[in-house]
Amino acid sequence: MKRLFFLLICVLILGSCSEYQKVLKNEEVNPKYKMAETLYKEGKYKKALRLFEQIVPQYRGKPQAERVMFFYADTYYQLEDYYLAGYQFDRFTKSYPKSDKKEEAAYKSATSYYHLSPRYSLDQKETDEALEKLQVYINEYPDSEKLVEANKLVSELRNKKEKKAFEIAKQYHHTENYKVAISAFDNYLIDYPGSVYRENVLYYKLESQYLLAVGSYESLVKERLQEADLYYNNYKKYYTEGDFTDDAEEIAEDIKARLEKQD
Question: How far apart are the C-alpha atoms of 148 and 168, rounded to whole Å?
């Protein structure tokens, strides 16, 4: 019985495969569409995609085109081919602005770009595109059930951009390019006033100014030390017991001692 059952399963699988190949090679559009939709609903996306790729051009301008195009875009999405999913969902929303599927397509377009966003150390072009599309979605669908998730993704992407900007500024500091580091930290505080890295930025800005001062020509030392002292006071105003408080206090004491020698 087990052997008979196994043979029966094999026959059914082979029959199914042969039917798929038959439809795939068939010139008729309708059988391809029916099988593509069936395979899509069964989660057999790779097979469905091959059929959709064949029939999409032939359905353009026809009543069924909207349905076919959505399935086509979503098949790429389900296969995690986010470049093509994002592109196809963009086309869908532009081609069918009154579609019942427009909101879902807009969300999946935005999340496709979210999935393409690379780690923070790389170029953030896709991150910017994802942020733009997610914000458009949030603005257009403020009552969406996906709103919480969309805002969560926006926050995650913004944090990634914050980290990249912080690491760039910190790199200037660590490579002793102190003037550029100070400017980068200033710009960072303007762009990300509520950043989780704010204490780090204020401390590294102080340290950059201090190291710039002690390494300067004698005629510039006093002025730059005074500037560093202002940065220390700014750090202390916000972080009396911060992660860098002890280091900041050491710098402040040395600044005071050096300024006393200047007088």
Answer: 31
Number of H helices, E strands in the chain: 12, 0
Phi-psi domain of 231 (left: phi exceeds 0; alpha: psi -120 through 50; beta: other): alpha
Cβ pair 82, 98 in contact under 8 A: no
d(CA 239, CA 192): 18
Instruction: Show the tokens assigned to 201.
Output: 């930025």
Query: pLDDT tens digits, residue range 38-56?
Result: 999 999 999 999 999 998 8
Alpha-carbon distance of 121 to 161, in angstroms, equals: 9
What one-character DSSP code corresponds to residue 79?
T
The pTM of the full predicted model, rounded to 2 decimals, is 0.80
Backbone phi and psi for residue 34, each to the nearest 5 degrees, phi listed first = -60, -45
DSSP 122: S
Q: Are 214 and 258 in contact (CB under 8 A)?
A: yes
Q: How far from chain centre, in Å, is Cα 144?
A: 21
99 in Cβ contact with 92 (< 8 Å): yes
Tell me the C-alpha distance between 106 and 88, whole Å. Answer: 11
- Classify residue 127 by burial, with Cβ atoms within 10 Å: 0-12, 13-18, 19+: buried
Q: What is the pLDDT of residues 58-85, one digit of tens each?
A: 888 888 899 999 999 999 999 999 999 9
